Amino acid sequence: MKIDLEQALNDMARSVQDDAAADRMHGRVRQMVTIVRRRRAARHTAVGMVGVGAAAALAFGGLQLADVAVDEPVPPAAPSERIERFACGAEVRTTGISVTAPDSLDHEPTVMAGGSLQVDFDVEASDTFQTVGTPTYTVALVQDDLVVSDPVRIEGRAPTADAPTLSANLSVTACGTAAALPRGGYQVVVFESVEVGEQPTVHERLRDVSLLNVYGEAVPTPDPDEDAAGDENFSEEETAALITLNELVSYGNEDPTATFPQCGTTTDSLDDGMPPLALEMDLDLSEADAEGAFTGTVMLRTTEGRRVTGTANASGASLVLLRDGVVVGHEWLDPWDLVEFDLQDGEAQELPLLGARTLCGTGGTAQPPALRLPPGEYEAMAWLEVTVEEVAYPGQDPETVAGSSPAWSSPQDIELR
Amino acid sequence: MARWEHSLDELVRTRGSALVGYAYLLCGDRREAEDLVQDALVKTFTRGRGGLEASNVEGYVRKAVLTTYLDGFRRRRRWAAVRHLVAVPDVQAGPEGPSADRVDVREALDRLSPRERACVVLRFYEDMTVPAIAEELAVSTGSVKRYLSDGVRRMEGLLGPVVADEPRPEDDPTSVEEIDVLTGGGER
């Protein structure tokens, strides 16, 4: 008896369809999306400002938000004691489970150190909470789980239908002083204290957390006409931070069709079958010129004993630089001309290899201006745009393929000094 | 409620089970299938793109399921890092018990490489043409033909002859005969 493959696959798929599973999944996904969206909002904030060094700290702070939450019953306390709990310098835990009112906070994403920040929060977004009396809200700036500036408390005020939003003005100054807070990434947190039950117990819950970047000086605007001098606006440390940021931004890439070696992609998307062509890279890092441009050669060969005909970019192969498996450096070479090839098994065609020590997505018409990749460990690959026309396995007739079939080399560990 | 939340709600409510079924065909494990769909939903709904309507977003989610499956290592690494934050007790057994045919087909699928399996599922479950599969997987049509040919042959090694679909001219107008052989049509 023959098995109907289409029917068998349909039956198999239906065998696991379960609405309860979908419900479970829904809650998890919703929570994850909320967390990731908040991270991304923070990262975009960082992109919009030029405090690049601070951007890494901000992005890192965003990652920490994966563990946010507080819902701890604490012994009943006098109002003054409750206030002390979130006083300047107090340790507040913002890691644990989840916030109770995500996305209810609203404030400017960046603020000048020493300035003030208006924080609005929507109290309608709160979940159901059987309370006795009205809640008390504490709005504070937190860094490393410590309250770092004088918090603002809103006590005994319940929002009304006409005014569902409460506001607080935070001073971006160090505790008890007028001294500006240092630049960097902070968290704006709103705690809610409520009394619950007939024998009132005070519950303190973290309603929401968002990220704030404090900058310490006027932000220079990059001049697109500036050439090499523009690079000097960024230290190597700052560029390294931007790479971190770049990797994070690229994770949830806006473009779902992004393919290797576009900035931020990984080698995971490469065909793990055996492509008809492969490259061998010969790169001498010591030959980088003063502008950080690399040159070398690649040898284009066929794989699996095949004979392959087609055309390749006459400009040559481009160098792709990766850090932790993510593309951080790659320049497209304009295929202004094509070179034809007809390679048998064992034959090779030599082509130039070109690359630059530049963070992808910078330089050219992009902003910011070209950033030099900082010293460190990288992986290097050669990448060549090829259009394959015919492929023939040994002893077989050629098969017309006529399609893009890029060739690349194995990654090679390199160190940029 | 934000727009993406409405869209997510509707998609999971109306198509969540079907998405898990599709993912299950790809990975062969019920729990992993849920993870695949979850990861795909997270990827899709965190992109913040406009037009996230349930009616048009399913295609993105399916593509993300596929790439996430093929991208298994990174998925496991990423999800493992956060799973403890949102995990609930293990899933229960499905409402239906396994049939012998299904077990056989599942075992046969398990013998395939990830890309062979993906090609078989896209061809015979998603009803896609060879060029469409090639585009989806970002490989050449020749590679797809090879994956399909090898995959079906390997499944037949366990299941015996399988009834596959009719060859379609749109697969490759220049080599209809070859498709016929690849999909088992040559045996009929």
Explained architecture:
The complex is a heterodimer of chains A (417) and B (188). With 417 residues, chain A is α+β, with helices and mostly antiparallel strands. Chain A has two domains: 195 residues, Sandwich (Immunoglobulin-like), CATH 2.60.40; 171 residues. Helix content of chain A is 19%, strand content 36%. Chain A has six helices and 23 strands. In chain A, strands 12, 13, 15, 16, 18, 19, 22 and 23 form an eight-stranded mixed sheet that branches. In chain A, α3 crosses α6. The relative contact order of chain A is 0.12. With 188 residues, chain B is mostly helical. Helices cover 69% and strands 1% of the residues of chain B. Chain B is built from nine helices and one strand; from the N terminus they run ααααααααβα. In chain B, α2 crosses α3. The longest helix of chain B has 25 residues. The radius of gyration of chain B is 18 Å and the shape is globular. The C terminus of chain B is likely disordered. Chains A and B meet through β1, α1, α2 and β21 of A and α1, α2, α3, α4 and α5 of B. β1 of chain A pairs parallel with β1 of chain B.
Low-confidence stretches of chain B: 73-98, 173-188
Mean pLDDT of chain B: 71
The oligomerization state is heterodimer
Number of helical segments with 4 or more residues of chain B: 9
Our measurement of the CA-to-CA distance between the termini of chain A, rounded to an integer number of angstroms, reads: 66 Å
Residue share in β-strands of chain A: 35-45%
Measured distance between first and last alpha carbons of chain B: 55 Å
Fourth-level CATH superfamily of the largest domain in chain A: Immunoglobulins
Number of domains of chain B: 2
Largest sheet of chain A: 8 strands, mixed
Percent range of helical residues of chain A: 10-25%
In brief, what are we looking at here?
The complex is a heterodimer of chains A (417) and B (188). By secondary structure, chain A is of the alpha+beta class.
